[in-house]
Model the fold of this input.
Amino acid sequence: INSPGSIFFVQERVGRNGRKFNMYKLRTMYLDAEERKKELMEQNEVDGPMFKMTEDPRVTKVGRFLRKTSIDELPQLINILKGDMAFIGPRPLLVEYLPLYSEEQHHRHDVTPGMSGWAQVNGRNNISWTKKFELDVYYVDHIGPMMDIKVFFTTIKKVLFRDDINQEGGEWATMDPFNGHN
Done:
């Protein structure tokens, strides 16, 4: 509405057995988000990584609402229909993280990734990457209907109460990128 261009954000992610696919979300940032980031960093208006910012200027007004309510995730229903994703499973991560995984962390790709998962309902952005991977592997090792039902209902609760959406540090602060050690 307040940023011209496609309403969809498409990003390559990694799915089951390491297969790459395009994941869909509603676009929440301005089209020139990366240029805005560079300008702010050059002007010293940003101290440190953008992900730690509160009120990230790259996010549109509508985008803030979409993120706050998790509505931006709804286009992933297309991924579910295509078979790239499931409702429940480890969240699909960026392709650039693949070479950083330990052997154990690679097991998260033994199952179909999901819109929500065990790590999301047990901390989401308020836990370390190490803990997220532990929870993802735990899910893979304990996959079954009861686990999925538990994740499903806990997801509904988390979305309604907006629990653990952002990392400590502000309303819009999210995770640092995975570096293989965090």
Q: What stands out?
A: Helices lie at 33-42, 61-69, 76-82, 118-121, 129-141, 145-161. Residues 167-173 have pLDDT under 50 and may be disordered. The two ends are 37 Å apart (CA to CA). The beta strands are 8-14, 20-26, 86-88, 114-116.
